[in-house]
Amino acid sequence: MLVRVGTKFSRETVRRYRKTPLSPALPIKPEKPKTSPPAVRAKEPNHVWITDITDIPALFKIWIFKLVVVLDVYSRFPIAFRIFAKEPTSAEIASLVEEAAARFGKPNHFVTDRGSQFTATAFAQTLARLGACLRHGAIGQTGSIAIIERFWRTLKEMLDLKFMPPLTLRHLERKIELGLFYYATLRPHQGLNGATPAEIYFGLIPATARAVTPPRGRSPDHVAFLHLPFRVGHLDRQAGLPILIPTALA
Known about the structure:
It is built from 7 helices and 7 strands, in the order H-E-E-E-H-E-H-H-E-H-H-H-E-E. By secondary structure, the chain is α/β, with parallel strands linked by helices. A 5-stranded mixed sheet has the order 3-2-1-4-5, with helices on both faces. A two-stranded antiparallel sheet has the order 6-7. A hairpin with a 5-residue loop joins strand 2 (64-72) and strand 3 (78-84). The chain is extended.
């Protein structure tokens, strides 16, 4: 029966188990009650913002740049970003949030991890002036910062930052600007039913809602592929950001 469920014991194993003295059972510690507030769900743009810091090594890891992005949770739209040559301070991140709020409006809730920049007084005071409720989360918990963790992975893979690291701070800024533009306006998001973050954030009708069914089967002359209404192009020189260009504009 043990073999049938994938476990195979030999006589020597059983004999060794029987001769090994049992260790005393450790007392079971009672679990502490969870006192963290329930996760808030974003219901509309600017309802919940989230921010985090990630490391981006330069070529040969000469420098380690720090990228900070403010993300709208409801639409996944990147509100603002800034790159630092060293670990940013609480006041610097607070300044970025103030600039984002002045441009796009104030959020109701602001989610961060428990990093020193986000628990400092300067950051908390800035959010208090904006009227935003500061909430701290933990990586991997539902309603926490898992959304921006997935965003980091998508952005780094999309720009191939691991195998094509930036040379300078300005070089990285240009790559991030292009990558965020592509992510926000051209890349369909599976979690948004094929819409882009910009379409959801600005209340636009998604392009997927205007899609039409293609003709079924082949044309009689079997050259339908010559009359495609689009061609494949790329937004960057490395051909890592594909786009579809209408034939009328090609």
